[in-house]
Amino acid sequence: MADLKIRTRDTGATARMEKGAMPVLSTPTGGQLDLVTGVSAPGFNPLDLLYASLAACLALSIRSAATRLGVTDRLGEVSAEVRGEKAAEGPSRVARIEAVLHIGGDFDDATRDQLIHMAEGICTVSNTLAGGPEIAVRRG
């Protein structure tokens, strides 16, 4: 029996903010992103990043689900639109997140629904958000 090789990636993020500046995010793998907070400023704010993480994970998970079903040859363009609603009362948080998945390709509605259901189970981000992970914040 062949050994299963699990690929891992060093994950995480660091936000650094110099006096009077906006935070700059970096990843252990060298990725970098500037944050914005202005209402009309182009770019990502912290909530956009939360929604973007879910959108990207669901889109990638559709492809994984198609592979598991053996239908990747029929899969077309995939898009995931994610939006959230902030809670009306404190503490400041997102009360509801909605994801709408568009799956192009030669599929009937039942197969599209199956791909979406499978993607929800595959996506680490949706599973994490649904489970309400423990968050530990401490002084460094």
Description:
The chain is α+β, with helices and mostly antiparallel strands. The protein has three helices and five strands; from the N terminus they run E-E-E-H-E-E-H-H. It has a domain of about 90 residues: 2-Layer Sandwich (GMP Synthetase, Chain A, domain 3), CATH 3.30.300.20. Strands 1-2-3 form a three-stranded antiparallel β-sheet, with no helix packed on it. A two-stranded antiparallel ribbon has the order 4-5. The model has no long low-confidence stretch (mean pLDDT about 95).
Continuous helix count: 3
What is the CATH topology descriptor of the domain at 45-131? GMP Synthetase, Chain A, domain 3
Give me the count of strands.
5
Instruction: Choose one word for the global shape.
Output: globular
CATH class type of the domain at 45-131: Alpha Beta
Compute the average pLDDT. Answer: 93
* Range of strand content: 15-25%
Short structural description:
By secondary structure, the protein is an alpha+beta fold. The chain has three helices and five strands; from the N terminus they run βββαββαα.
Question: How is the topology of this model organized?
Answer:
Blueprint: E1 14-16, E2 24-26, E3 32-34, H1 46-69, E4 75-86, E5 94-105, H2 109-122, H3 124-131
Antiparallel strand pairs: 1-2, 2-3, 4-5
